[in-house]
Amino acid sequence: MNDATVPANLPMSTPPATEGITDAPLRLRNLCKSYGGALVVDGLDLELAPGRCHGLLGPNGAGKTTTLRLALGLIGADAGTVALLGHPMPAAAARARRKVGVVPQVDSLDPDFTVRENLLTYGRYFGLSGREIDMRVPELLEFSGLAGKADAPVQTLSGGMKRRLTLARALVNDPELVFLDEPTTGLDPQARHLIWQGLRRLIARGKTLLLTTHFMDEAERLCDAISVIDHGRVIARGSPRELIASHIEAHVVEVYGDAVAEWKACAGGLCQRCEQAGETLFCYTDAPERVVAELEGRPALRYLHRPANLEDVFLKLTGRDLRD
């Protein structure tokens, strides 16, 4: 099987019916964590709905990674509570994590092992027997599009293949909840779309996903609900459509060209709001026709008219300044 094919087979059992079940797979209440006197997570509340994908978005330094570490019981909170699959964290971390999958930002595959051996070794960490792992490996390889690469050394795989193997490895224990920390960073568009297909299949089978990503189009495509965090607090939450409808104008006209600075004064009377970033002027409006008509008479300026999206919301809420 080549790198461009991902079959429909799913490496997991059919989930039990969830009708009437109200327990959240993950519930954070008034969570606080400080490092060196700096408050990194500040009274954060988060609750995931079962069988859905929840996005956790925020700029660098917003507290996302610390929140994930708290949720997994890797560190303890200064205040607040964490319940992971009904277990208090970090007290019952070992028990809870038996039904959790994690796709980290950086692949931690063993380069000295083959594809199959990476899955077998990882399955042992969850106490699975050799027979149980052997039964699951073919399904995992089919799911990740790596059935033809079972005996290939990891170092011979492409970046997209390694990322898909990392996703398959996170499913070896048939988890109820999967943490995805920037799962498609560094991948080309084809590999990103293949991973998105696999994640949609997981959601369709009732798995719960918690996704962090800097790709707003990824969050918009995959997430049923999103929490935007900054300075350790949730500053907005809702579905992608709800966030766009409640926080941003319906249309954006991006204007480029040497004369943008001079035209900016004119733009203020044509749209509700405008922001300049470098050589681009972003005009936010519910009546784009007025802006476009004015620009048609200015050949020195180029423009792009598009619907508002989640990235516009994110930049409005968290600002355009670079975070390190």
N-to-C SSE series? EEEHEEHEHHHEHEHEEHEHEEHEH
What is the typical, i.e. mean, pLDDT?
A: 89
The biggest beta sheet is recorded as: 6 strands, mixed
Report the portion of residues in β strands: 25-35%
State the shape: globular
The total tally of domains equals 2
Helix coverage percent? 25-40%
Structural class of the secondary structure composition? alpha/beta
* Number of separate helices: 11
The total count of strands amounts to: 14
Instruction: Pick out the low-confidence regions.
Output: 1-22
CATH topology of the largest domain: Rossmann fold
Side by side, the strands of the main sheet go 6-7-8-3-9-10
Gap between N and C termini: 41 Å
Walk me through what this model shows.
By secondary structure, this protein is an alpha/beta fold. The protein has two domains: 26-34 and 43-244, P-loop containing nucleotide triphosphate hydrolases (Rossmann fold, 3-Layer(aba) Sandwich); 249-307, Alpha-Beta Plaits. Helix content is 33%, strand content 25%. It has eleven helices and 14 strands. It has helices at 64-71, 93-96, 115-125, 130-143, 159-170, 189-204, 216-222, 240-247, 260-267, 288-296, 310-318; strands at residues 26-35, 38-47, 53-57, 79-84, 87-88, 100-103, 177-181, 208-212, 225-230, 233-238, 251-256, 273-277, 280-285, 302-307. The chain has a six-stranded mixed β-sheet, sandwiched between helices. It is globular, with a radius of gyration of 22 Å. The relative contact order is 0.15. Mean pLDDT is 89; it is low at 1-22.
